[in-house]
Protein backbone atom coordinates (compact mmCIF):
# COMPACT_ATOMS: atom_id res chain seq x y z
CA UNK A 1 0.00 0.00 0.00
CA UNK A 2 2.87 2.34 0.71
CA UNK A 3 3.96 2.41 -2.91
CA UNK A 4 0.40 3.08 -3.98
CA UNK A 5 0.18 5.96 -1.60
CA UNK A 6 3.34 7.53 -2.92
CA UNK A 7 2.13 7.03 -6.48
CA UNK A 8 -1.17 8.60 -5.62
CA UNK A 9 0.52 11.63 -4.12
CA UNK A 10 2.01 12.34 -7.56
CA UNK A 11 -1.38 12.25 -9.22
CA UNK A 12 -2.95 15.36 -10.64
CA UNK A 13 -6.13 16.23 -8.83
CA UNK A 14 -8.38 18.48 -10.91
CA UNK A 15 -10.24 21.13 -8.92
CA UNK A 16 -13.32 19.74 -7.19
CA UNK A 17 -12.35 16.11 -7.72
CA UNK A 18 -10.94 15.30 -4.32
CA UNK A 19 -12.18 11.69 -4.43
CA UNK A 20 -9.97 10.96 -7.40
CA UNK A 21 -7.30 9.03 -5.51
CA UNK A 22 -9.82 6.75 -3.88
CA UNK A 23 -11.38 5.96 -7.23
CA UNK A 24 -7.94 4.99 -8.56
CA UNK A 25 -7.29 2.53 -5.80
CA UNK A 26 -10.67 0.88 -6.23
CA UNK A 27 -10.06 -0.09 -9.84
CA UNK A 28 -9.11 -3.74 -9.99
CA UNK A 29 -9.95 -6.44 -12.51
CA UNK A 30 -11.91 -9.62 -11.72
CA UNK A 31 -8.60 -11.37 -11.10
CA UNK A 32 -7.65 -8.69 -8.61
CA UNK A 33 -4.95 -7.20 -10.82
CA UNK A 34 -4.67 -3.44 -10.57
CA UNK A 35 -5.75 -1.40 -13.56
CA UNK A 36 -3.93 1.65 -12.27
CA UNK A 37 -1.09 2.58 -14.55
CA UNK A 38 1.72 5.12 -14.42
CA UNK A 39 2.64 7.16 -17.48
CA UNK A 40 6.38 7.03 -17.98
CA UNK A 41 6.48 10.51 -19.53
CA UNK A 42 4.48 12.62 -17.05
CA UNK A 43 4.57 10.10 -14.17
CA UNK A 44 0.88 10.42 -13.46
CA UNK A 45 -0.91 7.36 -12.14
CA UNK A 46 -4.45 6.80 -13.35
CA UNK A 47 -7.06 4.10 -13.92
CA UNK A 48 -6.93 2.81 -17.46
CA UNK A 49 -10.62 1.90 -17.52
CA UNK A 50 -11.99 5.20 -16.20
CA UNK A 51 -13.10 7.68 -18.84
CA UNK A 52 -12.72 10.49 -16.31
CA UNK A 53 -9.20 9.41 -15.35
CA UNK A 54 -8.13 9.05 -18.97
CA UNK A 55 -9.36 12.60 -19.69
CA UNK A 56 -7.58 13.92 -16.58
CA UNK A 57 -4.38 12.20 -17.66
CA UNK A 58 -4.65 13.61 -21.16
CA UNK A 59 -4.95 17.16 -19.79
CA UNK A 60 -2.16 16.72 -17.23
CA UNK A 61 0.16 15.01 -19.72
CA UNK A 62 -0.22 17.82 -22.25
CA UNK A 63 0.39 20.59 -19.69
CA UNK A 64 3.28 18.80 -18.05
CA UNK A 65 5.10 18.16 -21.32
CA UNK A 66 4.17 21.20 -23.41
CA UNK A 67 2.88 23.83 -20.99
CA UNK A 68 -0.52 25.48 -20.73
CA UNK A 69 -2.26 27.19 -23.63
CA UNK A 70 -1.85 30.95 -23.21
CA UNK A 71 -3.95 33.78 -24.63
CA UNK A 72 -2.18 36.65 -26.38
CA UNK A 73 -3.40 39.39 -24.01
CA UNK A 74 -2.50 37.65 -20.76
CA UNK A 75 0.32 39.19 -18.73
CA UNK A 76 2.38 42.33 -19.13
CA UNK A 77 5.54 41.75 -21.23
CA UNK A 78 8.89 42.45 -19.59
CA UNK A 79 12.29 42.54 -21.23
CA UNK A 80 15.58 40.97 -20.29
CA UNK A 81 18.94 41.76 -21.87
CA UNK A 82 19.98 39.29 -24.55
CA UNK A 83 23.33 38.15 -23.18
CA UNK A 84 22.88 36.42 -19.85
CA UNK A 85 26.33 36.14 -18.29
CA UNK A 86 27.59 32.67 -17.39
CA UNK A 87 29.93 32.06 -14.44
CA UNK A 88 33.58 32.15 -15.57
CA UNK A 89 34.05 28.50 -14.54
CA UNK A 90 31.34 27.38 -16.98
CA UNK A 91 32.36 24.89 -19.61
CA UNK A 92 29.25 25.47 -21.67
CA UNK A 93 29.27 29.19 -22.37
CA UNK A 94 28.95 28.45 -26.07
CA UNK A 95 25.69 26.60 -25.54
CA UNK A 96 24.47 29.52 -23.45
CA UNK A 97 25.30 32.00 -26.19
CA UNK A 98 23.16 29.88 -28.51
CA UNK A 99 20.36 29.71 -25.95
CA UNK A 100 20.39 33.45 -25.43
CA UNK A 101 19.88 34.21 -29.07
CA UNK A 102 16.97 31.79 -29.34
CA UNK A 103 14.09 34.06 -28.34
CA UNK A 104 11.91 33.54 -31.41
CA UNK A 105 8.18 33.25 -30.70
CA UNK A 106 8.86 33.79 -27.00
CA UNK A 107 8.23 36.44 -24.38
CA UNK A 108 8.24 36.75 -20.62
CA UNK A 109 5.19 38.30 -18.97
CA UNK A 110 4.45 39.50 -15.47
CA UNK A 111 1.12 38.32 -14.01
CA UNK A 112 -1.01 41.30 -13.03
CA UNK A 113 -3.10 41.30 -9.89
CA UNK A 114 -6.82 41.90 -10.59
CA UNK A 115 -6.57 40.14 -13.96
CA UNK A 116 -8.57 37.00 -13.30
CA UNK A 117 -7.90 35.28 -16.63
CA UNK A 118 -4.12 35.31 -16.39
CA UNK A 119 -4.16 34.59 -12.65
CA UNK A 120 -6.38 31.54 -13.10
CA UNK A 121 -4.25 30.26 -15.98
CA UNK A 122 -1.15 30.66 -13.82
CA UNK A 123 -2.87 28.83 -10.96
CA UNK A 124 -3.48 25.91 -13.36
CA UNK A 125 0.26 25.79 -14.01
CA UNK A 126 1.08 26.10 -10.31
CA UNK A 127 -1.01 23.01 -9.66
CA UNK A 128 1.24 21.02 -12.00
CA UNK A 129 4.38 22.60 -10.54
CA UNK A 130 3.42 21.87 -6.93
CA UNK A 131 2.42 18.37 -7.86
CA UNK A 132 5.81 17.69 -9.44
CA UNK A 133 7.62 19.22 -6.46
CA UNK A 134 5.27 17.70 -3.84
CA UNK A 135 4.93 21.28 -2.57
CA UNK A 136 1.94 22.92 -0.86
CA UNK A 137 -0.77 24.17 -3.23
CA UNK A 138 -1.72 27.21 -1.13
CA UNK A 139 1.30 29.49 -1.53
CA UNK A 140 -0.02 31.78 -4.26
CA UNK A 141 -1.36 34.72 -2.24
CA UNK A 142 1.85 36.75 -2.33
CA UNK A 143 1.84 37.08 -6.13
CA UNK A 144 -1.88 36.82 -6.99
CA UNK A 145 -3.47 38.77 -4.14
CA UNK A 146 -5.88 35.89 -3.49
CA UNK A 147 -6.86 35.97 0.21
CA UNK A 148 -4.20 38.61 0.76
CA UNK A 149 -4.48 42.39 0.70
CA UNK A 150 -0.82 43.30 0.20
CA UNK A 151 1.29 41.73 -2.53
CA UNK A 152 4.75 40.60 -1.44
CA UNK A 153 5.94 39.13 -4.69
CA UNK A 154 5.36 38.48 -8.37
CA UNK A 155 4.85 35.68 -10.87
CA UNK A 156 6.45 35.66 -14.32
CA UNK A 157 5.51 33.28 -17.13
CA UNK A 158 7.62 32.29 -20.12
CA UNK A 159 5.35 32.15 -23.17
CA UNK A 160 6.47 30.26 -26.24
CA UNK A 161 4.31 29.50 -29.26
CA UNK A 162 1.17 30.54 -27.35
CA UNK A 163 1.90 28.22 -24.45
CA UNK A 164 3.10 28.97 -20.94
CA UNK A 165 6.28 26.90 -21.02
CA UNK A 166 7.67 28.00 -17.65
CA UNK A 167 6.89 29.96 -14.52
CA UNK A 168 8.68 31.58 -11.60
CA UNK A 169 7.12 32.98 -8.42
CA UNK A 170 9.23 35.15 -6.14
CA UNK A 171 8.59 36.84 -2.81
CA UNK A 172 10.28 39.81 -1.18
CA UNK A 173 11.88 38.49 2.00
CA UNK A 174 11.77 39.92 5.48
CA UNK A 175 15.12 40.03 7.29
CA UNK A 176 16.09 36.92 9.23
CA UNK A 177 14.93 34.29 6.73
CA UNK A 178 18.17 33.96 4.75
CA UNK A 179 20.54 31.01 5.20
CA UNK A 180 23.49 29.50 3.34
CA UNK A 181 23.19 25.90 2.19
CA UNK A 182 26.29 23.77 1.60
CA UNK A 183 25.81 22.36 -1.90
CA UNK A 184 27.78 19.16 -1.21
CA UNK A 185 25.51 17.76 1.51
CA UNK A 186 22.54 20.19 1.49
CA UNK A 187 23.22 21.14 5.11
CA UNK A 188 22.24 24.60 6.38
CA UNK A 189 24.86 26.86 7.95
CA UNK A 190 23.18 27.75 11.26
CA UNK A 191 25.59 30.41 12.50
CA UNK A 192 24.94 33.04 9.79
CA UNK A 193 21.65 34.68 8.79
CA UNK A 194 22.37 36.68 5.64
CA UNK A 195 19.79 39.22 4.47
CA UNK A 196 18.75 38.11 1.00
CA UNK A 197 16.17 40.24 -0.82
CA UNK A 198 14.18 37.91 -3.04
CA UNK A 199 12.98 34.37 -2.33
CA UNK A 200 12.44 31.99 -5.28
CA UNK A 201 9.29 30.24 -4.16
CA UNK A 202 8.75 28.10 -7.30
CA UNK A 203 10.47 27.76 -10.67
CA UNK A 204 9.39 25.27 -13.31
CA UNK A 205 9.77 24.62 -17.04
CA UNK A 206 7.59 22.14 -18.93
CA UNK A 207 9.40 18.94 -19.76
CA UNK A 208 9.78 19.37 -23.52
CA UNK A 209 11.36 22.83 -23.14
CA UNK A 210 13.99 22.09 -20.50
CA UNK A 211 17.73 22.58 -21.00
CA UNK A 212 17.26 25.56 -23.32
CA UNK A 213 17.98 28.33 -20.84
CA UNK A 214 14.34 29.18 -20.08
CA UNK A 215 14.68 28.92 -16.28
CA UNK A 216 17.73 31.19 -16.43
CA UNK A 217 15.73 33.77 -18.36
CA UNK A 218 12.90 33.59 -15.84
CA UNK A 219 15.40 34.16 -13.02
CA UNK A 220 16.70 37.20 -14.85
CA UNK A 221 13.17 38.55 -15.38
CA UNK A 222 12.45 38.20 -11.65
CA UNK A 223 15.79 39.75 -10.73
CA UNK A 224 15.23 42.78 -12.97
CA UNK A 225 11.48 43.36 -12.68
CA UNK A 226 10.22 42.32 -9.24
CA UNK A 227 11.20 45.51 -7.47
CA UNK A 228 10.43 48.08 -10.11
CA UNK A 229 13.39 50.18 -11.25
CA UNK A 230 15.66 48.40 -8.80
CA UNK A 231 17.44 45.34 -10.23
CA UNK A 232 18.59 42.94 -7.55
CA UNK A 233 22.05 41.41 -7.45
CA UNK A 234 21.95 37.70 -8.29
CA UNK A 235 23.47 36.84 -4.97
CA UNK A 236 20.55 38.39 -3.10
CA UNK A 237 18.18 35.84 -4.63
CA UNK A 238 17.56 32.85 -2.37
CA UNK A 239 16.16 29.37 -3.01
CA UNK A 240 13.51 27.56 -1.02
CA UNK A 241 14.43 23.89 -0.47
CA UNK A 242 15.88 23.42 -3.96
CA UNK A 243 15.04 20.15 -5.75
CA UNK A 244 17.78 18.10 -7.43
CA UNK A 245 17.48 19.98 -10.73
CA UNK A 246 16.77 23.25 -8.86
CA UNK A 247 20.02 22.76 -6.95
CA UNK A 248 21.93 22.37 -10.21
CA UNK A 249 20.29 25.48 -11.60
CA UNK A 250 21.20 27.36 -8.41
CA UNK A 251 24.75 26.07 -8.65
CA UNK A 252 24.98 27.52 -12.11
CA UNK A 253 23.07 30.74 -11.50
CA UNK A 254 24.17 32.16 -8.17
CA UNK A 255 26.25 29.86 -6.00
CA UNK A 256 29.25 31.23 -4.07
CA UNK A 257 32.62 29.69 -3.33
CA UNK A 258 33.44 29.96 0.38
CA UNK A 259 37.00 30.31 1.70
CA UNK A 260 36.67 26.78 3.15
CA UNK A 261 36.37 25.45 -0.40
CA UNK A 262 32.67 24.63 0.00
CA UNK A 263 30.16 25.84 -2.59
CA UNK A 264 27.24 27.67 -0.96
CA UNK A 265 23.72 28.27 -2.26
CA UNK A 266 21.67 31.21 -0.95
CA UNK A 267 18.48 29.80 0.63
CA UNK A 268 15.64 30.95 2.87
CA UNK A 269 13.35 29.40 5.45
C1 LIG B 1 15.00 23.13 -12.62
C2 LIG B 1 14.38 23.58 -13.94
C3 LIG B 1 13.44 24.76 -13.65
C4 LIG B 1 15.50 24.02 -14.91
O1 LIG B 1 14.88 24.57 -16.08
P1 LIG B 1 15.72 24.72 -17.44
O2 LIG B 1 15.00 25.69 -18.30
O3 LIG B 1 15.96 23.38 -18.00
O4 LIG B 1 17.08 25.35 -16.91
P2 LIG B 1 18.20 26.11 -17.79
O5 LIG B 1 18.19 25.55 -19.18
O6 LIG B 1 18.04 27.58 -17.65
O7 LIG B 1 19.51 25.63 -17.01
C5 LIG B 1 20.57 26.49 -16.76
C6 LIG B 1 21.72 25.71 -16.16
O8 LIG B 1 21.32 25.10 -14.93
C7 LIG B 1 21.88 23.77 -14.82
N1 LIG B 1 20.77 22.79 -14.84
C8 LIG B 1 19.45 23.08 -14.87
N2 LIG B 1 18.72 21.93 -14.80
C9 LIG B 1 19.61 20.92 -14.74
C10 LIG B 1 19.48 19.50 -14.65
N3 LIG B 1 18.30 18.89 -14.61
N4 LIG B 1 20.62 18.77 -14.60
C11 LIG B 1 21.83 19.36 -14.63
N5 LIG B 1 22.02 20.70 -14.71
C12 LIG B 1 20.91 21.46 -14.76
C13 LIG B 1 22.77 23.60 -16.02
O9 LIG B 1 24.08 24.04 -15.66
C14 LIG B 1 22.16 24.56 -17.02
O10 LIG B 1 23.08 25.10 -17.93
P3 LIG B 1 23.71 24.21 -19.15
O11 LIG B 1 22.57 23.46 -19.72
O12 LIG B 1 24.30 25.23 -20.05
O13 LIG B 1 24.72 23.35 -18.49
C15 LIG B 1 13.58 22.43 -14.62
O14 LIG B 1 14.40 21.29 -14.71
C16 LIG B 1 12.31 22.03 -13.87
O15 LIG B 1 11.26 22.62 -14.10
N6 LIG B 1 12.39 21.03 -12.96
C17 LIG B 1 11.22 20.58 -12.21
C18 LIG B 1 10.80 21.59 -11.17
C19 LIG B 1 11.93 21.92 -10.22
O16 LIG B 1 12.63 21.05 -9.73
N7 LIG B 1 12.11 23.23 -9.95
C20 LIG B 1 13.14 23.73 -9.06
C21 LIG B 1 12.60 23.95 -7.70
S1 LIG B 1 13.86 24.56 -6.63
ZN1 LIG C 1 1.40 11.06 -19.17
UniProtKB/TrEMBL annotation:
<dbReference type="InterPro" id="IPR000182">
    <property type="entry name" value="GNAT_dom"/>
</dbReference>
<dbReference type="GO" id="GO:0032200">
    <property type="term" value="P:telomere organization"/>
</dbReference>
<dbReference type="Pfam" id="PF13878">
    <property type="entry name" value="zf-C2H2_3"/>
</dbReference>
<feature type="domain" description="N-acetyltransferase">
    <location>
        <begin position="109"/>
        <end position="269"/>
    </location>
</feature>
<dbReference type="GO" id="GO:0000785">
    <property type="term" value="C:chromatin"/>
</dbReference>
<dbReference type="GO" id="GO:0008270">
    <property type="term" value="F:zinc ion binding"/>
</dbReference>
<dbReference type="GO" id="GO:0034087">
    <property type="term" value="P:establishment of mitotic sister chromatid cohesion"/>
</dbReference>
<feature type="region of interest" description="Disordered">
    <location>
        <begin position="79"/>
        <end position="98"/>
    </location>
</feature>
<keyword id="KW-0539">Nucleus</keyword>
<dbReference type="GO" id="GO:0007076">
    <property type="term" value="P:mitotic chromosome condensation"/>
</dbReference>
<dbReference type="GO" id="GO:0003682">
    <property type="term" value="F:chromatin binding"/>
</dbReference>
<dbReference type="GO" id="GO:0043596">
    <property type="term" value="C:nuclear replication fork"/>
</dbReference>
<dbReference type="InterPro" id="IPR016181">
    <property type="entry name" value="Acyl_CoA_acyltransferase"/>
</dbReference>
<dbReference type="GO" id="GO:0006260">
    <property type="term" value="P:DNA replication"/>
</dbReference>
<keyword id="KW-0808">Transferase</keyword>
<dbReference type="InterPro" id="IPR028009">
    <property type="entry name" value="ESCO_Acetyltransf_dom"/>
</dbReference>
<keyword id="KW-0862">Zinc</keyword>
<dbReference type="GO" id="GO:0061733">
    <property type="term" value="F:protein-lysine-acetyltransferase activity"/>
</dbReference>
<dbReference type="GO" id="GO:0034089">
    <property type="term" value="P:establishment of meiotic sister chromatid cohesion"/>
</dbReference>
<comment type="similarity">
    <text>Belongs to the acetyltransferase family. ECO subfamily.</text>
</comment>
<keyword id="KW-0479">Metal-binding</keyword>
<feature type="compositionally biased region" description="Low complexity">
    <location>
        <begin position="79"/>
        <end position="95"/>
    </location>
</feature>
<dbReference type="Pfam" id="PF13880">
    <property type="entry name" value="Acetyltransf_13"/>
</dbReference>
<keyword id="KW-0131">Cell cycle</keyword>
<dbReference type="GO" id="GO:0140588">
    <property type="term" value="P:chromatin looping"/>
</dbReference>
<protein>
    <recommendedName>
        <fullName>N-acetyltransferase ECO1</fullName>
    </recommendedName>
</protein>
<dbReference type="InterPro" id="IPR028005">
    <property type="entry name" value="AcTrfase_ESCO_Znf_dom"/>
</dbReference>
<dbReference type="GO" id="GO:0070058">
    <property type="term" value="P:tRNA gene clustering"/>
</dbReference>
<dbReference type="GO" id="GO:0006302">
    <property type="term" value="P:double-strand break repair"/>
</dbReference>
<keyword id="KW-0863">Zinc-finger</keyword>
<dbReference type="GO" id="GO:0007088">
    <property type="term" value="P:regulation of mitotic nuclear division"/>
</dbReference>
<keyword id="KW-0012">Acyltransferase</keyword>
